[in-house]
Amino acid sequence: xxxxxxxxxxxxxxxxxxxxxxxxxxxxxxxxxxxxxxxxxxxxxxxxxxxxxxxxxxxxxxxxxxxxxxxxxxxxxxxxxxxxxxxxxxxxxxxxxxxxxxxxxxxxxxxxxxxxxxxxxxxxxxxxxxxxxxxxxxxxxxxxxxxxxxxxxxxxxxxxxxxxxxxxxxxxxxxxxxxxxxxxxxxxxxxxxxxxxxxxxxxxxxxxxxxxxxxxxxxxxxxxxxxxxxxxxxxxxxxxxxxxxxxxxxxxxxxxxxxxxxxxxxxxxxxxxxxxxxxxxxxxxxxxxxxxxxxxxxxxxxxxxxxxxxxxxxxxxxxxxxxxxxxxxxxxxxxxxxxxxxxxxxxxxxxxxxxxxxxxxxxxxxxxxxxxxxxxxxxxxxxxxxxxxxxxxxxxxxxxxxxxxxxxxxxxxxxxxxxxxxxxxxxxxxxxxxxxxxxxxxxxxxxxxxxxxxxxxxxxxxxxxxxxxxxxxxxxxxxxxxxxxxxxxxxxxxxxxxxxxxxxx
Length: 505
Prior knowledge:
By secondary structure, the protein is α+β, with helices and mostly antiparallel strands. It has two domains: 11-380, no CATH class; 396-503, no CATH class. Helix 2 (16-38) runs antiparallel to helix 14 (268-275). The chain has helices at residues 2-9, 16-38, 41-45, 53-59, 75-94, 98-115, 122-134, 161-180, 184-187, 192-197, 205-210, 214-230, 241-262, 268-275, 282-291, 293-307, 311-321, 333-362, 375-380, 436-445, 454-467; strands spanning 14-15, 157-158, 396-406, 411-413, 419-420, 474-485, 496-503. It is a multi-pass membrane protein.
């Protein structure tokens, strides 16, 4: 029996060094995400932007959600919260009071995601879940400031309910993505990638190279579908674990790099690459340890030196509120075992809930999770949906023209820095978006269910235009969408002009 149990646990044993690398990767992504979001503090997170708090509470708020960013509609308050989040991400990167900063980083990430759901994408769900499960993982045990205050671990391998949750979560991402792709274009016709690359609003240069080759796109469509469906199974094979893990990591690394070259997906591919770092086997980590870790440790020492003057204040604050961190709290062995059992029990329960939530998105009605049970998912944001290009690829494509009519009757396109309006298709539709957050917002802007948000965007654009010196005054702004519906076999499409919103000063 013991041999069977040992065999079953093999796929879920992780290297502490790989978990530390996962922590650093997640922290780096957090910093990148904060930096990108910070360029739109007023537009996306203030009452002067595209989603004032009143509109959010009226149309897009769940009663179980929470958000510190909703405490004020001022962009200055948002800036303070962003600075705090960036500081916590740096602390997570170097492993300073790791468990505490993981929890606080997760709270602020949930908070900012809840503030504006109109700019969220699938990668945000995964980043949130990596932080959530990371709280239960010892990803600050090595390669961290905290580890210098502890004896070296007796072994570099680690197994717990949290390692099971981390691996199962990764598998759920790809299994659910594949199972939700129920359209024949994925599993029978092989045209899904053709339709994806027909969307000019996400088409990257690599996609332009692939687009003229239908046979290759058909093969890649089937390869993507069956890889997402079948490859996660290798994570649960209890023999030759190193080989299967490396296979999964290499294939997924190539897959997401390929996505980044063909489709404009923002941080999605980076988050997915970061998510697999914890799977690296001991042989790989030993090589990295010899070549890369010494440099990272020198950087960590420099950061620790800068944080040293603040240590007494932080310790006093922790004691005042009754907090303890992993590096300084060592309960007796008996209590420690009891606490670990309680923690593992909590993780198993949360993992079962997450699996049920995912089953509810893909299975028959008999699996339906009733509404009274959904409050937990919304409260701690372990709700998730992995419907990337599912059940079929979005067919409505096009580009925006922000047609501003001046007081003299001239028509200027605010989407092209005030150039004269033209209805010719831009050479690159992707270049019209400042970042992927705006691209996602423009996608949601099209849906009839989101019609309430249209006047806010229109009036925001008017205000920004008039606040810039030298701009001609406008008497009206029309948000126009030049709609193209993708058709099969490269059939030509005639754009249709749709006025989504009109506003005046």
